[in-house]
Design brief:
Strand order of the largest sheet of chain A: 1-2
Radius of gyration of chain A: 28 Å
Oligomer: heterodimer
Largest sheet of chain B: none
Radius of gyration of chain B: 22 Å
Structural class of chain B: mainly alpha
Structural class of chain A: mainly alpha
Distance between the termini of chain B: 8 Å
Distance between the termini of chain A: 65 Å
Strand content of chain A: under 5%
Largest sheet of chain A: 2 strands, antiparallel
Number of strands of chain A: 2
Number of strands of chain B: 0
Strand content of chain B: under 5%
Order of helices and strands of chain A: HEEHHHHHHHHHHHHHHHHHHHHHHHHHH
Number of helices of chain B: 20
Amino acid sequence: MSNYLYLIPIMPFIGFLINGIWGKKLGEKAAGYIASAMIGIAFVMSVTAFFELLGHDPHHRVIEKEFFSWIAVGDLSIPFGILLDPLSAVMILVVTGVSFLIHIYSIGYIHGDPGATRYFAYLNLFVFFMLLLVLGNSYPIMFIGWEGVGLCSYLLIGFWFTDQAKATAGKKAFVVNRIGDFGFLIGMFLIYSTFGTLTFSGAMHGAELFVGSTAIIFWMTLSMFLGATGKSAQLPLYVWLPDAMAGPTPVSALIHAATMVTAGVYMVARNSFLFIMSPGTMEIIAWVGVLTAIFAATIALVQNDIKKVLAYSTVSQLGYMFVGVGVGAFAAGVSHLVTHAFFKALLFLGSGSVIHAVHHAHAHAGFKGDPQDIRFMGGLRSKMPTTFWTFFVGCIAIAGVPGLSGFFSKDEIIWMTFANGHPAIGVIALIAAFLTAFYMFRLLFLTFYGSWRGRKDQEDHLKDSPKVMTLPLTVLAVLSIIGGWIMIPYALGGGMQFEHFLEPVFEFANNFAGEKGHPSHMAEYSVMAISIILAISGILLARAWYLKNPDIPARLANRSKLAHKVLFNKYYVDEIYNFAFIQTFLGLGEALWKSFDVLIVDGIVNGVAKLLGWISSVVRKIQTGLVSNYALMMAIGIVAVVGYMVWKI
Amino acid sequence: MTFNPTDLLAIAPEIAVLSLAILVIMIEVLISRSEEVLQGITAIGLLAVMAVSIFVRSTSANVFSGMVANDDFTMYLKVLLTGIALLAILMSKDYLKGKNFRVGEYYTLILLATVGMMILASSTDLVTMFLGIETMSIALYALAGFRSECSKSNEAAMKYFLLGAFSTGFLLYGIALLYGATGGKTNFADIGIAITAFGGDNPAPAYLYAGIGLIMVGLLFKVAAVPFHFWSPDVYQGAPTPVTAFMSAGPKAAAIIVFLRLFGWALPDMSIAWQPILGVVAAVTMVTGNIIALSQQNIKRMLAYSSISHAGYLLLAVIAAGTAGIRSDAAAGMLFYLVAYYLMNMGAFTVAILVSRARLDGDYQINNYQGLAANHPWIAGAMALFMISLTGIPPTAGFFGKLYVFSAAVKAGFIPLVVIGVLASAISAFYYLRIVVYMYMRPETAESSKDLKPTPAWKTIMIVCSILIIYLGVMPGMMMKLADSSSQKISSPNRVVTLK
């Protein structure tokens, strides 16, 4: 039955091949349709797989299929297999579903770009690797996906590689991710040396039987979490994500908001059985998550680039997901991953629509300005009605207005921090929620309300984006509204169907953690009430400052110049990293290069090469070209061989 | 000795190739001298032979009283050897054009050499082994001198023949001594049993050792191991290039396989005597082959020395096969290695032909590769892949070939040899990757910007080889499983009926 499973990642790969090889001949339009169709087919198959899984009884919702033996050397045997369980089923649905919408949107967005076919080829390749990442049944396959999505991400960040800044951003993402990947690899080696296997099921079995010091588990999980901080842009490795916004906006939506950056969260959830055994790592994850959440939220408060605000918001929301998995609420973390994929993809695509429109307006007016700067926008509500109302839905979803998806998933995480005994983390998470509501509505008001702050001739050319772009926005807006309705907590009379669906995956972790007791509904209501009040006041504050009295923020910024400057410059982290690491390493590198490299390594390498070359030129002279000499050499060889054999007796 | 007619099924592929050879020569004489017709018939015929190898099988384990092996392992080898002949013929198609060759004879000789290779690779008896070696060699002598107007080619044939005759003498002498020492046995398994009888009060006679040594020398000549390799650079350079490609892959594969069968299945009890000397030969071969290749300026000669060093890697598998319990691992590793080597070497020679043809003087200097990537990204990419695979860098077939052979040697305890092997491959990176550097990092020249005009046949070879190299490099599992399971069941038939 489930033989079609391997076709799910194969479909986008076929799309990649078609567009990669014949893209130029097919042309931009056909390339876009083929790419979207491939993802569409993969989505349909994912839905089929999901229902097939639902048909099983909840405790047997695991389909593991090994297609062939991939590598077998000695005792190491790595089969190439696919693992479909509720967790990967959710992931493939999100990945294929959101990608499908973003592919369609891209047809409109990338229209007219000379590199459009290349763009679609990369995008398909990305989806292929992402599906491999979430469907693989072993660490090496996950790692291939992990590296593959990274590769595509750099290719797409540097898509307009004629632009130096964008190429640099790609390089930054590359370097930072290498640090994280190093952690993943170390974790993988530790898993192999401890459990002697590299499949998830094998490692799970090993964890069940594990006796002995949990120190090894701590290092194992901590290394893997380092990998996760790289890919999922957490402190201290988040610096690449805001720069990654240099890529085309749909790429930001797909890779840097909805799918790839959540790979770290998926990895922690996939290995919940290991992480739960190391309370130390869990504590670290929860703290890193919450600190990232508030840190990035404060930066987002003062940014003027529409995509930068969303980028920091993504970093901050990813922090929430890690808080969820860090406090042992794996299902809550994954829930937020799903709803975030909807509303953040929506917001990014909405911003893309805005940039698209402003860019065209600028172009028509012959004006060369930054089409992403919100200080020169405003009043777009009437010009771009569909973009506006979908963006509005995204804002209230992320802000945590009751009834929308973001509310249920984020609240569940915050509630679980209190329920599982991490009140300090919970309080910080609540403050970050307030900041989230504030900066999102600041963005909304500055972009869509008030009046146009650009030139009049530009304003006349502003118009809403074509259907092919607004349709995906509408679908995502609907999902952002209803996406959370399967996560409604019991306290509000819901069924938490989503959590129940995921439950078998986290059974081991939940049993290991033990029963925490049931805090009363009353406590849950009060946390919920606080978070709603904070969200509403954040929105109202943004309204007061940016809609009613637009001069307040400027006055405030003037009064506390230092604070504003620090925030605006993102705490100078880039500069600090540049000084502390890059300059230091460059200096160190140069010193080493001059002393060690040039003198010793180059000396040895060149020396060896020279020596070999010299030996080579001498030895080749034996090849005289004369048969008699050859025969003599052979005779000497024969005497040596036979002589040795006889002497050996 | 009884003859069972169904035994013929086991050698159906050999019979088919032989019939094809006769058919081709007859057609040339009687019907058509057209190159297209002859080539088409040969190529289609070889495809049919592949099918015959796979589907026409005898169930008997003891065919021709145990003179040839009949098992899956042998079947795969026959498919491989047919494949080598097929690519050589595809490669020749446009090479022969305008060269005024008698194409029918040329194809017939390749087919006859293939018959010899197949007999050799399936032989489990000294007599069939000798028969195979001579059938193969005589056809190859003629092929090496096929460019009769070219003095280099004539020289190559003469050298090959003289030194070949020289080594055959020793091989025969060794066979005679072994026959005498084992009380009249020629079958590999019988020899193995006879040797177990020695020991204690009944020590093995000195001429048994001498016989083994002489046979070893004869076979080392055929695989071109140092110091019995001197013929190969001169012959490789002088022979028509498709023949060079064919010789570097086919005869080497057939000879190394019989080497493995004889030493791993008949002489494992003598391994204390032969493993050390073979180890020294392997080490010297790997190191010398790679070092001399460094200073070659002609790509055919470079590939000749590279093929010498690959013979050294393959000898590691023969050595490992002498250790109890490792021989099927060694055989599996060797099978994988041979497939990988065949693909990357055939691919590299195809590019070499293409590049040299674009030049007026048609020479094979490495300088011709300067800046090739600028105008021929696909050809340069394929060549880079072949070079990377020959170096043994993942994810290519060459990497896993080396990995499997080396890991068999490690299992058998020959760690110093493996260390030498790895260092030798590091040396090889210098000259393989030099081609890549030339193609990608040197400015293009007037010569390298010429259109290379790859014909469909050449394109096919490059594409098929590239795809399979990557496939085996990314997913070696399937092929490895096949090699593993077939090598577990290598039959060692012995004579049930005694000669009376």
